[in-house]
Amino acid sequence: MKLYRIIAYATSLLVVTTLATGIAGCGTKQSAPAPTDNRVRTLTTNDAPAKRKIDNPKKVAAHLESLARGVEGVKDANCVVFGKYAIVGIDVDKKMERSQVGTLKYAVAEAFRKDPYGIDAIVTADLDLAQRVREIRVDVKNGRPISGFAEELSDMIGRVIPQIPRNIIPPKAPENMGTSSLNKLKK
């Protein structure tokens, strides 16, 4: 009976000590002071136009492509609209430096920011992604929006997921193929 009392006392002491340490540790942390700089600017949503509902995705895609092509340095643009989202792939000069490509993407996004349809668009200048958007756009024009999107999405995921040699299972050789089957026929 005495042993149980000692164990209960030790357990209670351990719990109380843990709680006291935790409470004391929480009480010493102070929150960050409020910024005193009066130049802090708050962003307002009044700067951007209100998002319009997309009734005709093909018309909106053509409109956003036209806006993107209007930016100097953009050779071509392809847009795909799914629901309320748009993905725009822009083609730029292959010799252009990365910083210039970033500037062009920003310029296209700035043009979209002022447009009620383009306010939530995603702009990419990546060659592979722009090509994928172009292929999805062709599939949409050919009446295959869902299957075309699914095919391109699987291709993109296939490029991202690494191939691990340990996980490769070689196919079994067919029993009727090769020289061994020819030798059996000669006998």
From TrEMBL:
<dbReference type="GO" id="GO:0030435">
    <property type="term" value="P:sporulation resulting in formation of a cellular spore"/>
</dbReference>
<feature type="region of interest" description="Disordered">
    <location>
        <begin position="168"/>
        <end position="187"/>
    </location>
</feature>
<keyword id="KW-0449">Lipoprotein</keyword>
<dbReference type="InterPro" id="IPR019076">
    <property type="entry name" value="Spore_lipoprot_YhcN/YlaJ-like"/>
</dbReference>
<dbReference type="InterPro" id="IPR014247">
    <property type="entry name" value="Spore_lipoprot_YhcN/YlaJ"/>
</dbReference>
<feature type="signal peptide">
    <location>
        <begin position="1"/>
        <end position="20"/>
    </location>
</feature>
<feature type="compositionally biased region" description="Polar residues">
    <location>
        <begin position="177"/>
        <end position="187"/>
    </location>
</feature>
<protein>
    <submittedName>
        <fullName>YhcN/YlaJ family sporulation lipoprotein</fullName>
    </submittedName>
</protein>
<keyword id="KW-0732">Signal</keyword>
<dbReference type="Pfam" id="PF09580">
    <property type="entry name" value="Spore_YhcN_YlaJ"/>
</dbReference>
